[in-house]
Amino acid sequence: MKQEIGLLVVFLLVFLYDTFMPQRAGKALPVVSTVLLLLATAAGFCSHCLGTATSTEAFAGMYATSPVVCAIKSILNIGAVIVLLQSISWSGSDHMAVRRGEFYELLLVTLFGMYLMISARHFLLFVIGLECASLPLAAMVAFDKRHYESHEAAVKYILTAVFSSAVFMMGISFVYGLAGSLYFGNIYAALSAGTHSLMLTLAVAFVIAGMGFKLSLVPFHLWTADVYQGAPTSVTSYLSVISKGAAAFSFLVILAQVFGSLYSDVWEWMLYALIILTITVGNLFAIRQTNMKRFLAFSSISQAGYIMLGIEAFNTMGLTAMMYYILVYIFSNLAAFGVIGAIERASGKVDMTDYRGLSKTNPRLAFSMMLAMFSLAGIPPFAGFFSKFFIFTGAINQGSVAIYVLVLIALINTIISLYYYLLVVKAMYISADEPVVGTFRSSISERLGLWITVGGVMLLGIASCVYTWIFDLGEISPLAAYFV
Amino acid sequence: MEIKAIMLLVPALIMFCCGVYGFITRRNMIAILISLELMLNAVDINFAVFNRYLWPDAMEGMFFTLFAIAIAAAETALAIAIIINLYRSAKNIDVRDLNKLKY
Amino acid sequence: MFSNILIWFVVIPLLMLAGLALCRDIKQIRAVAVAGSIALVGLSVKLLVDYLAIRAAGNTDPMLFTGSWTWFAPLHINLAIGVDGISVAMILLSAIIVFAGSFASWTIPQPKAFFLWLILLSTGVFGFFISIDLFTMFMFYEVALIPMYLLIGVWGSGRKEYSAMKLTLMLMGGSAFLMLGLIGIYYHSAPAGQSLTWNILEIVRNNSISHGWQCFLFPMTFVGFGVLGAMFPFHTWSPDGHASAPTAVSMLHAGVLMKLGGYGCFRVAIYLMPHAANELAWIFLVLTGISVVYGAFSACVQTDLKYINAYSSVSHCGLVLFAILMLNTTAMTGAIMQMLSHGLMTALFFALIGMIYGRTHTRDIRAMGGLMKIMPYLSVCYVIAGMASLGLPGLSGFVAEMTIFVGSFQHADVFHRTFTIVACCSIVITAVYILRVVGKLLFGPVQDKHHLELTDATWWERLSTVTLILCVAAIGCFPNFFSNLIRFTFSPDIFAVLGMN
Amino acid sequence: MESVGSIILYTIVALAMVVFSVLAVTTRKILRAATYLLFTLFAAACVYFMLDYEFLGAVQIAVYAGGIVVLFVFSILLTTHPGRNSEPLASKSRVLGAVASVAMLLVAGYALVSRCALFVAKPALETPTMQQIGESMMSTSEGGYLLPFEAISVLLLACIIGGVVIARKR
Amino acid sequence: MDATLPILILAIPLGMFLVLGLAGCKMSHKLAGTLGCLGMGTTLVLAYYTAFTYFFSGSPEFVDAAGNRLQALIFNQTWLAFTDNLVIRLGFLLDPISAMMLVVITTISFMVHLYSMGYMRDHHGVYEHGFQRFYAFLSLFSFSMLGLVVATNIFQMYIFWELVGASSYLLIGFYYVKPSAVSASKKAFIVTRFADLGFLIGILILSYYTGTFNFTELTSAPVEGLAGVFQISESTAAGVKSVFESSATPVFMGASVLTWALVLIFMGGMGKSAMLPLHIWLPDAMEGPTPVSALIHAATMVVAGVYLVARLFPLYLMEVSALEFVTWVGALTALYAAIVACTQIDIKRVLAFSTISQIAFMMVSLGVARPEMHEGLGYMASMFHLFTHAMFKALLFLGAGALIHAIGSNDYTEMHGLRKYMPITHWTFLIGCLAIAGIIPFSGFFSKDEILSSCLGNSTVIYVWMSLVAGLTAFYMFRLYYLIFWWKEHKVHEGHHAPHDQPWTMSLPLIILAAISLVAGFIPFGKFVTWNGKSYDFMAHFDWSVAAVSLFVAVVAIAIATVMYRKENPLPEKMRAAMPGLWKWAHHRFYWDELYMFITHRIIFDGICRPIAWFDRHIIDGTMDAFATITNKASRAIKPLQSGQVQLYVWWYLLGALALGGITMLCLL
Description:
The complex is a heteropentamer. By secondary structure, chain A is mainly α. Chain A has one domain (2-482). Chain A has helices at residues 2-20, 29-49, 67-91, 100-119, 123-141, 148-179, 184-193, 198-215, 222-230, 233-257, 263-287, 292-313, 316-347, 358-361, 363-377, 383-396, 401-430, 444-462, 464-475, and strands at residues 56-58, 63-65. Helix content of chain A is 77%, strand content 1%. The longest helix of chain C has 32 residues, at 329-360. Chain C has one domain (5-498). Chain C has a two-stranded antiparallel sheet. Chain D is an all-alpha fold. The mean pLDDT of chain D is 88. Chains B and D meet through helix 1, helix 2 and helix 3 of B and helix 1, helix 2, helix 3, helix 4 and helix 5 of D.
C-alpha cells in the first residue's frame, strides 16, 4: 500500500504545484515531477529492501502485496522515472506549456492504475486499475495537438481499448456467473473444485483477449503500431515498456491466481498459440518498417511474445525470468526511445533512412542505439542476452516436449528479429550515403537518460546480483503456490 | 412459465452482438461509440442477471455493474473529447478516413 | 580469481579495449594492438609451457588450471574455466592469428573502431576456449560472432551488406539450435534430485543424459556448432562472408572463428553425448564427407581468390568435423591438428589475398597474372600457403590430413573406411584448384601492365606473413609435439569414461 | 410461476432490448441511433427493476439515459451537419460485421446454452436497501467496496483532466 | 655405423636449400652455384663413403655370417605417432638398393649441378634470372630423393615422394613466365598427385590390416638370426597373409585386399614412373631446364616407382597377380613409348619417351622376377638397368642440353650435321645411344640382357615382346642420333655463331658419364644387389643365346636407322606415307593428351565442378536465400492485416478471441 500512497502523494503534489505555482515556475515542473517520482521510487524500493515488505492482504483480500509485487512496482517506477527524465526536454518545449502539468498528472495516474492492476485480487478493482491505466493514456496519446497522427492514434486507441474492455468484462461476467465471486481466491477455489464448462473456456479466452490487448499479443495487437507511431515519443516509450510490463505481470497474476487450475487444460495451449503468433507476426511486420517508432512497436510486439514465455512456463523460474526480462526490456527499449526522442526533437526525423550515417555525425547516439538494438536482439554481453537466455531456460524448465518446440520457434524468430535490429545498425554505421541528421548536442536530461539506460544495458546482465535479487524474491512469492 | 436466467442473458448477448455489428459497420465515430455503449450495457446486464439468479447472497455483480456504469461514463466522456478534438483538426469523423497510420 | 592464468586471456583484451578508448591517434592504436597481441602470444606460450610442465609432472586431470566462480547462483551458472591440450592449442592459434591480424590491418581506415570490434571478437574467442561452463561458453561464442557484422559491413568490400547480414543471420541461426541444445543439456545434467549444472566436467561425471535425450540434443548442438564449422549444407555464408570481409577479419574468421565450430562440436556435442554421437555420427559423416569433396570441387571453378579460399575452407573444415565424428583417438587428434593447420594457413591465405587485393584492386584471377615477377615476396608466400593447403610434407596441412586419414581408416566399420577414401580424394582436387590459382595468378605473363608498377610487401606485412609461415612450418616439421599435446584429451581412458569404444 | 404481467413485461423488455439495439446500429440517421440507444438503455433499466435492483435501475436511467445520451446528442450536433445521413454501408463491411456478430452469438450463445445452471428461475430475494448498498460501498470487509470507490474517483479525476486537456483549444 | 654421416647426407642438401632459398637473392650467382656444387660434392663423397662402407666393410651390421646382406637401420627417429604401432619415423635404412640409389642420385645430381653452372647462362656468360632459385630447388630435390630412397617406412617414403613431386613441380615450372612451362608443371603435379592418391589409399589399406608402416616388418622376419633378415620368412609371410585372409573383407571386387593394396601402391609408382595411362606428364615435363630433365625426369625421380616396387618386392611376391599386373602395365608402356618415340621431332620428347620405355623395362623385369627362377634375377636386372639407365640417360639428356644450348631449339630439324661442330657432344652422345641400344660392351647391353633373360624365364610372350621393344629402342635412338649429327650439312644462320662445344663445366659431366656408361656393365651387380641379400655371381645367369638374339636385333635396328637417316633421303617420307594412320597416331602420342583434356575439362570441370558450383550458388545458397525471401513474402502477404482501419482491427480481435475460445472448446468437447 505504501507505494500506492507514495504515488498518490506525488500525484497530488504535482497537481498542486501545477495548479498554484505561477506560470514561470511551470518550466520547472518536469524536473520537479521527475525528482518527486524518483524519491517515491527510492522510498518504495528502500522500504522493500529494508525488509519491511511482506506478503500482506488488505481490504479483505481485495488488495495484496508481496516482495515480488513491490519489486515489479519498483521496476516500473524506475522505468517511469527514466521516461520522465527523457521527456523533460520534450515537455519543456513551448507548445507543451499549457498542458505540461497534465502530462505528468495523467502519467502518474496511469502508473497508479498499473499498481492497482498488479495488486488487485478482485476483478472490480482490477478493471478499475485497467481502465485507470489505459484511459488517461488515450489522452496522453492525443497530446501532440500539432500533428494529425496524434489525434488519429488517440481515436484508434480509445475505440479499441473500450471494445477490448467490453470483451474483457464480458469474460469476467462469465467467470462471475460460474464462480459466484469476483475475489480471485474465491474464484480459484470454485474453479478448482468444479468441472470445466465451455463457458469457462470462453471466459478465459475473453480475459486473455483483454489482457492480450494491453500486452499487444497477436491478434489483439493491431492498434499498437498505429498508436505508437502517432503518439508523442515520450508517450510511446511509456506505452511500450511500462504499460506492457505492468500488464504482463498482472496477466500472470490473473492466470495463476484465478485460472491456475486450468493451466494444462485450457490456457497453456491458448498461450502457446498466441506466443507463436505474436513473435512471428510481430517480427514479420517489423521487417518492413522504416518509421522508427512503428518499427519499435512491432519489435515490442514480438518482445511481448518472449515475455509471455515466462508465463507459459508457469513456474518460479519463468516468473523471475519474466520480471528480469521486463526490467531489461525497459532499459533497452528506453535507450532506443531516448535516442529516437533526442533525434526527433533536434531534427524532426523519425525514419530509419534518416539515420543513415548517424555514426559519423552523432557517434554517441549511434553507439547507444546500437547497444540498445543489440540488447533487444539478445546479443551478449548486453543485458538482453541474459534475459532472453533466462526466459528460455525458465520456459524449458516446464519440461514438456511441446515447450521445446515452442522455444525452438521462438529461437528461430530471434534470427528474424536480429535481422531487423541489424538494419538499424546498418543504417547508422554501414550505409555510405551522406548523413541526413546533422551533428547536434542533446540536452542534459536526454544524455542523463541515455547514460542510465545504456549503463543498465551493459551492466544488468553482467552484474548477476540483479537477477539473483529477483530470483530470491520469486522464491518467496505467493504466486509460487499456484504453479504446477 | 418462468423467466429463466438464460432468457435475459440471450437478449443481452444479442445486444452485445449488435454492438459488435455496429462497431464494425458504422462509419460515424459517434455511432461507433453508441455501439460500444450497447456492448458495455450488455455486460452490465449479464452481471446483474448472474448476481440475481445464481449468486443472490452477495451483491458483487450489482456493484460491478454500478462501477461499470461509472467507467462507461468516463470512457464515453473521454472518447467524445478525443473525437471532437479530431473533428477540429480533420473536420471529419468518418472512421474509415483514419488511415494515415497503417501497414 | 586473477591468480588464474586463464582469466588473463579475457582480461588482456578488455584492457586493450579500455586502452583503445583512450587512444587519440593511429600510432597509439597500433601500439595498443601490438602490445596487447604480443602479451597474448606471450601469455599463451607461458600457458603452453606451464601446461606441459604440469602434465609432465604426472597430472592426469582432464582439465588443468580449473577455476569456478559463482555467477548466477539460482541457475547454477558459474564462470568456470579450465583447459586441456586442445584448448591450449586453440588459444595459441588464436593468439598468433590475432597477432598476425593486427599487423595485417596496419593501415585500416577508422582504426579505433576497427580494433575495438576486432578485440571484442578475440575476447569472445579466448573466452570460449577457456570456458568449461556451457553458459559462459555460449555467451563468449556469441560475443565472438556479432562483431563480424560490423567488421564486414563497415570495412568490407563488394556486396558487404548482404554478406555481413547473411553471415550473421546464418551463424545466429546455428546458435539458435545450439541454445536450445544447451538448455536441454542443462536440464538433464544431473540425476533427479541433484542440483543441475552447466559445468562440462560435472555433466560428464554425472553421465545422466538419457539415451533418448541425447539423440535429440546431439543433433541440435552439433548442427549449431556445425554451421560455424561450415558443414554442408549450412556453409553458404562462408564464401560470401569471406569474400566481403576485410583482410584481418577474414583471417580471424577463417583462422579462429570457424574453429569454434569444430571445437564446440567436440567439446559439447560429442563429449557430453557420446552415445548419440556413436549412433548418429553416420548422418553427419555423410554430410561432412560431402562437404570435403564438394567444397573442393566448387573451389575448382571459382574466379574470385577469396571464393576459392572460402570453398577450400569448406572442404578443410569439413574434414575437421569428419574426423571428429570418427570417434577415435587418432582421427580426433588429426581433427584438432587440422584445425590448427587450417587456421594458420587459411589466415595466411587471406592475409596474402588481402595484400594482393590492396595493390591490384581486383581479386579476379583472370585479371591478374605473373605476379611472381612483380611482387616476389608475396608470391612466394602464396605458393607456400598453397603448398601447405594441398598437403605438402613439412608444412602443417600434410600432417593434419594424414593423421585424419590414417585415424579414420582405423575405424572398424567399412562404411567409415569407404567414406575415408572419398575424403582422401579431396587431396587431388585440392591440388587442382591450388595449382590453378598459382598458375594463373603468380606465373605466366603479366596480364595488366599497370601491375608492373606495384610494390612488394611492407615490413608489417612481412612480419604478419612470416609469423604464420613459421607456425605452419613448425607444425609441419615437428608434428609429434602438437600431436602429443592434443592426444591426451582423446586418450582411450577418456573414451572409456565416456562409454565409447 | 411468474405472474402474467411480469411475463408480458419481460416480453416487451426483451423485445425492446433486441429491436432497439438492432435499430440503433442499423439506422442511417445518427440522431435516431442515439434515440434508439436511449430506448435500449431504458429497457436495460427495466431489466434491473425486474431483477429487484432498483438502485441500479435508477443509476442506469440517471447516468446513462440522463448523462451519456445527452452527451451523445450534443456531440452529434457538434460534429454533423444537420440532415445529412450517413452514406449507405458497403456490403463488404456489412458482411464482416455480420460474420463477427453471428460468430460471437453462436459461440457465446452455445457456451451459455450448454450451461444447465442457467436454466433456473429467480430465487426469492429481498430488494437490497439503500443502507445495505451504502454500507457495502464504504466497507473494507469482505463484500466492501471502499477501495474501488476511491480508485474510481482517481479514474474519474484523471478522465476529467484528460478530457479538459484534450478538449482545450490550444 | 655412426649416424652422423648419413644424417649429413640428408642435412647438407636440405641446408643448402634453405640457405640458397632464403639468402639466395642476396648472394651473387657464382657464389650460389659454387655453394650448390660444393654441397652436392660433399654429399657425393659422403654417399660414396656410405655405400662403400655398406658393400665392402663386411661389418656384421651389414653382412651376416653367411655373407647375406642385411638391412641396417642407421637411425630411426619418431616423427609423428598416430597410434602405438602406426608411427611415422624419419630414418635411414641402408640396404643394397638404397646404397645403390645413394650412389646413383648423388652422382647424377652432382653432374647436373656442375653442368648447370654452364648451362644456366647464355652465350655471353650472363646467368639466367633465378639462378640461385634453381640451385635451391635442385638441392631440395636431391634432399627429397635421398630421403625417399633411405626411407625406413612406407610413410616416410610417401612424405619424400610428395616432396620430390613438389620439387619436380617447381623445377618444371622454373621458367614460370612461359605458359607452357606453367601448365606442364601443373600437369605433372596433378597427374602424380592423382597417382599418389592410390598410393595413399594403398598405404591405408596395408597399414590397417598389418598394423605397421615399417618396411622391415612388412618385408622381413621379425626375429633376427633366421636364414636372412632380409629374406621373407615363411612365418612372416604366413602371418601377413593370414591377416588378410582372416579379415572381414578379404576380397573386394574379385581380388584380395592385399592385391588391391599392392595395386594401389603400384599406382603411385605408375604416376611417378610415368607408366601408361599416367605417363602423359613426362613428355610435357621437358619444359623444364634440360639439366632438370636429366636429373629428375630421366635418372632419378622417375625410377622412384620402380624403387617402390622393389622395396616392397617381398610383399608383391605374396600376390603374384599384382606382379602380373606390374608386368603387363610395363610391357604395354614399353611398346607404346617406343612406338611414339619413333615419330617425335623434339629431341627431348624422344628422350622422354625413351625414358618411359626404359623404365617400363625395369617394371617388366620386376614383374617377371620370381625367387624360384634364377634366384630372382629379374629383381637384380631391374636394379641394374636402373643404374645403367640413369647413367646413360643422364648422359643423353645432358648431351641434348648441350645441343639445345648451342642451337637454341629443341627441334632436330634445326640441327642436322652437327658432328663436326660439336665433337665432344657427338661422341658422348653416340656412346649414350650405343648403351641404350644394347650394344656390347656398353652398359645397357648387360642390364638389358639380364632383363630379357628373366623375361624368357617367365614367359616367352613377354620375352618376344620386350625384344621387339629393345629393337625399336635401338632404331629410334639411332634415328635421333643421325638426324642430329648427320642427315645433311648444318646451316648456320646469319648473325649467329657457329655451334660449338660448351665450356668444361658442361663437357666434363658428359665425359664422366660417358665413361661410366662405357664400363658400368662390367660391375658384378649380382654380388651387390639381390632381392634377398644373397650374393651370387651374375655370370651364372648370363644367357649367351639371349644376348646374341638381342644383340642381333639391336644391330639390325641400327642398320635400318642408318639406311634411313644417315643421309638426307626420301625413305622416311615414304615410310610415313606407307603407314599414315599409325604415323599420325604415334605422332600424336595416341591422343592420350586429348583424352585427358576431355576428361579433365569436359567431364571434371564442365561436368562436375561447374554443376556443383552452380548447385551451391543456386540450390543450396538459393535455399538459404529462400528463407529470407519467404520471410519477406510472408511479411508482405500479411501486410493487409495492419490496414489502418480500426473496425478491421476489432474484427480480427473478436475473431481471434472467439477462435481461441472456440477451438479450445472443440478440443475439450
